[in-house]
Amino acid sequence: MKENLKSFFKKDGVKSVLASLISILVGLIVGAIAVFLVGIFKDTIGVKGAWEGVRIIFAGILSTGRNVVGSLTWGYNAVNLGDMLFRATPLIMAGLSVSVAFKTGLFNIGAPGQYLMGTMTSLAIALSIPSDKVPTWIIWIIAFLAAMVAGALWGAIPGFVKAVFNINEVIACIMTNWIAANLVTWFFDGSVFCNQVEAGKTGYIYKTSYNGVATVKLGLDKVFKGSQVNGGIIIAIVIAVLVYIMMNKTTLGYQLKACGANRHAAKYAGIKDKRNIILSMGIAGALASAGGALYFLSGNTEFFWSTYQSLPATGFNGIPVALLALNNPIGVIFSGIFMAMLSTVGMQLTNLTAYNEYITDVIIGVIVYLSAFALFIRTWISTRKKEAVAKPSEDKEKEIQEEKTNERGNE
Amino acid sequence: MSFLIQQTLLFMVPLMIVALAGVFAERSGVINLALEGIMIFGAFTGVLFVRTVQEIGLFESAYLNGNWGALQLFEILAMLVAGIMGSVFSLLLAFAAVSLKADQTIGGTALNMLAPALVLFLVRIMVNQNTLMMFKGDSAGWFMLKKTTFGFDKDADLGFFGNTFLNKVYLATYICLLIYIILSIILYFTKFGLRLRSCGENPQASASLGINVYKMRYSGVIISGFLAGMGGFVYALTSSNCSANGDVAGFGFLALAVMIFGNWKPLNIAGGALLFGLFKCIAACYSTLDINGDGIFWLKEVGISSNVYRLLPYVITLLVLTFTSKKSRAPKAEGIPYDKGTR
After folding, report:
1. Chain-chain contact of A182 with B120 (C-beta, under 8 angstroms)
2. How many domains does chain B contain in total?
3. Which residues of B4-39 are buried (b: 16+ CB within 10 A; e: fewer)?
């Protein structure tokens, strides 16, 4: 049994998962400490409020509000869980986008811009094709695919300047982000898509359900009653599996990974490195913009169009999602859901306590910071395990050494 | 024309000083993607300092008596505080990048996520809104240099030079320019500067000559943090009325682009910052821009959408980078963690 455990901890995958779990735990603890300290020093919150804040940080997904006495209640919360899955959808897509680029050795910080391009394209198409002539599900598919194409083209721009002009993709991505934000604002500024029916919603685009277009629910709304969840999460998971197959079972995936491991060696081996860099960023762009499309084609979300001053956080959060999953497409599903859980926890904090949702961003920041030296944590785990295991098995090692000396003697 | 020059200076100086911050980190071999985050943090601490001191009433009498010397001292103190806290914050990056040999791009991204989150979390708890302002008054009233500050009449004509550089300006702008010149000289004409640059090119060779690469990289990042933190506060002071809301409008990233555009050299960076400052200025105030002083707002009357002007700085950055990329030469060892064992 002990032997099994030892080899279990020696596996790279297990080490990686452990490293991610440690990052998450430390992130949560730092967040809890911040909440606790702030609570103690702020007399309007006090120790009681601080303790409530800490409990929500760790288990906010299961909080159901407050009872008549005013203390927190806990239990199964269908709305929370459903909304968590709904918010996880774009996060998983953004995470996939970042991880595909990572595997090719590129840091795709351009996911926010690609996400915006996908949002713009999908909304424009879903709202402009007349639904009385074309079935809504066909409109949905056209909008979704068009968003992916737009995102692929937009994502390929930084890839192109990287491959041809050797410009750092980080800078190129940041520039395309802001260009996208301005383009989207320009496109929607004064257009027919702006909501002019509902009062107080002039800053927003119509929901796609205005044109009858909405993502299919696939019965998920019955499981999580009252939440926004829809079939988008299933689509995201299917895409994640497809990306996994593409990266690990196809020639294309092999070529992309080879370029990431060593661009020059890949070129020497006859792989077209420039083409693959552009392609990788294109795929990344398509995935991120599919996230935007899935979020806004749901039929119950509204897009704030005057976005030139800020970039969508969902795109940036693709980075921690990918890092936590160590760029494994299947892992991205779980880390995406985890990040969505954090954002749900943030909402609970704002609604139920004197704290605000930004503490969850602090937690995410800490997690990203820790995953920067994931390698360090992984080595730390393996050395710890060695020390712990070394003592009981000293005799065995001796035996092995004796055997070896015997063998040498025999030779 | 005066207005154009003044506005351009307002955008140019933070860009310049933060780009120099990037130079100090990258020339020592550490990619500092966290400039934006450090700026945000510096702006927050600077504004918080101003607010707290005002709350205590320390410079109250100086303000009431119009003792502008004391108020300028107050401004310089706030800049110092922002710079020092920026350094402290950048230690997080230095620790990850130098001591733990972590991925510098991800470490920088982490700080960029951490800073606005932390700032907004604290600001919201402190004042129950998303913007931390001065306790009383505004930055123009407390810190701006005006004609009346120097004892001139409000309508006095000081000539082109006086009108442009002595009226409605901030001392911080000139201090930043001075620091920029001094630090550029240090980087190029002192022993310390040479050693720092060598660590960004070939740290192993530097180490073989007895230079402590870790120490040099730490100092590079700390200087970088100081400049970025100070630049963040200067931006908040001059462009957003001394308030902090966890956002510096992408200036840190723009500064990075300016740095790459300027080929990691101070003189070129100054030129790049001038170009981008000009375009940022046009984007921000094209509708009130009277270039030759004949009362015609030319840019407004052309009738181009405001979105175009806002788009321009970024498009031009990308295009300029594309055309200058052939000449671009980054420090050779930037982004590679220094390991004593490798040769």
Report:
1. no
2. 1
3. bbbbbbbbbbbbbbbbbbbbbbbbbbbbbbbbbbbb
The C-alpha atoms of residue A343 and residue A357 are separated, in whole angstroms, by 7
Q: Judge whether A377 and A22 are in contact, CB under 8 Å.
A: yes
The b-or-e profile of A239-274 (16+ CB within 10 A means b, else e) is: bbeebbeebeeeeebebbbbbbeebeebeeeebebe
Q: What is the pLDDT of residues B224-254, one digit of tens each?
A: 999 999 999 999 988 888 888 888 878 888 8
Which of A125, A140, A159, A128 lies closest to A286, judged by CA? A159
Written as six digits, the tokens of B136 are: 């009383």
Tell me the DSSP string of A101-148. Answer: HHHTT---TTHHHHHHHHHHHHHHHHHHS-TTTS-HHHHHHHHHHHHH
Q: What's the alpha-carbon Rg for chain A, to the nearest Å?
A: 25
Backbone angles phi, psi at B334, to 5 degrees: -70, 140
Instruction: Classify residue B209: in a domain, yes or no.
Output: yes
How far, in Å, CA of B192 to CA of B20, rounded? Answer: 16
A313-324 and A273-296 are packed helices; what angle lies between their axes, rounded to 10 degrees? 120
Average pLDDT of span B121-125? 88
Nearest Cα to Cα of residue B336 among B27, B86, B29: B29
- Tell me the shortest Cα–Cα distance from B129 to chain A, in angstroms: 11
> pTM, whole model, 2 decimals?
0.86
Domains of chain A: 79-340 (1.10.3470), 375-410 (no CATH)
Q: Cβ contacts (< 8 Å) between A372 and chain B: which residues?
A: 96, 102-104, 106-107, 110
Q: In whole angstroms, what is the distance from residue B117 CA to residue B57 CA?
A: 30
Average the pLDDT over A117-121 and give the result.
94
Over 70: is that where the pLDDT of A52 sits?
yes
Q: Which residue of A has its CA nearest to B125?
A: A355
Q: Residue B226: which domain range?
A: 2-324
pLDDT band at residue B305 using 50, 70 and 90 as cut-offs: confident
CATH value at residue B146: 1.10.3470
Amino acid identity, position A405: T
Query: In this structure, is residue B331 part of a structural domain?
Result: no
- Is the model's pLDDT at B151 over the cut of 80? no
So what's the pLDDT on residue A409?
A: 46
For the cut 60, the answer to whether the pLDDT of residue A405 exceeds it is no
Nearest neighbour of A179 by CB, restricted to B111, B305, B311: B311
A308-322 pLDDT, tens digit each: 878 888 888 898 899
Q: Is residue B333 part of a domain?
A: no
3-state secondary structure at position B41: helix
Say if B330 falls within a structural domain. Answer: no
According to the model, what pLDDT value does residue A123 have? 92
| Yes or no, beta carbons of B121 and A320 under 8 Å apart | no
Q: CA-CA distance, B148 to B258, in Å (whole number)? A: 36
SS3 percent helix, strand, coil of chain B, rounded to 5, is 70, 0, 25
* Structure-token match 């909402």, residue found: A347
Using left for φ > 0, alpha for ψ between -120 and 50, and beta otherwise, residue A120 falls in alpha
3 state DSSP class of A320: helix
Q: How far off is chain B from A162, nearest CA to CA, in Å?
A: 9
Lowest mean pLDDT among A2-6, A82-86, A238-242, B240-244: A2-6
DSSP B186-198: HHHHSHHHHHHHH
Helix (H, G, I), strand (E, B) or coil at A194: strand
Q: Do B109 and A186 touch (CB under 8 A)?
A: no
Q: Which of B324, B260, B186 is nearest to B23 (CA)?
A: B260
Bridge pairing between strands A63-66 and A72-74? antiparallel
Distance in angstroms (rounded) separating the CA atoms of residues A371 and B105: 11
